[in-house]
């Protein structure tokens, strides 16, 4: 399982094929707690067979909870605007798409947040 962190940004690769060309791809990954999620997106470059690297679309410094993220849905468009939607019901192998997110431990083992001063 791939592991990502603030120092190693999320990058999920998917292989897709479509005779008219693969266009946009989007995937939803849900945290194991069921409360947090991240959406990753990429572009197939209109190739008929493409390895698409998906990254968070609106990262903007948002903090992800550490832990395991499971793929809940993938949407893939071809160059004609047709879409394929993959869910656990339609594609049971989706359970194999997952990653961990961690925050690296820095310093001398300090595991507490900042102290509020008066």
Description:
This protein is elongated. Strands 1, 2, 3, 4, 5, 6, 7 and 8 form an eight-stranded mixed β-sheet that branches. 19% of the residues are buried. The protein contains no helices and eight strands. The mean pLDDT is 89. 0% of the residues lie in helices and 47% in strands. It has 118 residues and is mainly beta. The protein has a single domain (2-101), classed as Sandwich (Immunoglobulin-like). It starts with a strand and ends in a 17-residue tail after the last strand.
Please outline what is shown here:
With 118 residues, this protein is mainly β. It has no helices and eight strands.
Question: What descriptive keywords fit this protein?
Answer:
118 residues, mainly beta, Immunoglobulin-like, 47% strand, elongated
> Can you tell me the number of structural domains?
1
Q: How big is the Rg?
A: 17 Å
CATH architecture: Sandwich
Outline the low-pLDDT stretches: none
Number of strands: 8
Mean pLDDT: 89
Note the beta-strand portion.
over 45%
Number of helices: 0
Structural class determined from secondary elements: mainly beta
What's the CATH class label? Answer: Mainly Beta
Q: What gap, in angstroms, lies between the N and C termini?
A: 44 Å
Query: What is the CATH topology?
Result: Immunoglobulin-like
Main beta-sheet annotation: 8 strands, mixed
**Which series of helices and strands comes N to C?**
EEEEEEEE
C-alpha geometry: elongated
Helical percentage: under 10%
């Amino acid at each position: 399982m791939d592991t990502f962190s603030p120092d190693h940004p999320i990058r999920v690769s998917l292989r897709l094929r479509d005779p008219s060309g693969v266009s946009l791809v989007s995937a939803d990954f849900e945290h194991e707690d069921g409360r947090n999620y991240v959406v990753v997106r990429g572009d197939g470059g209109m190739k008929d067979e493409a390895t698409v690297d998906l990254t968070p679309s609106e990262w903007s410094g948002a903090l992800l909870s550490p832990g395991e993220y499971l793929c809940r849905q993938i949407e893939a468009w071809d160059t004609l605007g047709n879409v394929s939607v993959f869910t656990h019901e339609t594609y049971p192998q989706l359970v194999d798409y997952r990653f961990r997110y961690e925050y690296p431990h820095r310093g001398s083992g300090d595991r507490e947040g900042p102290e509020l001063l008066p």
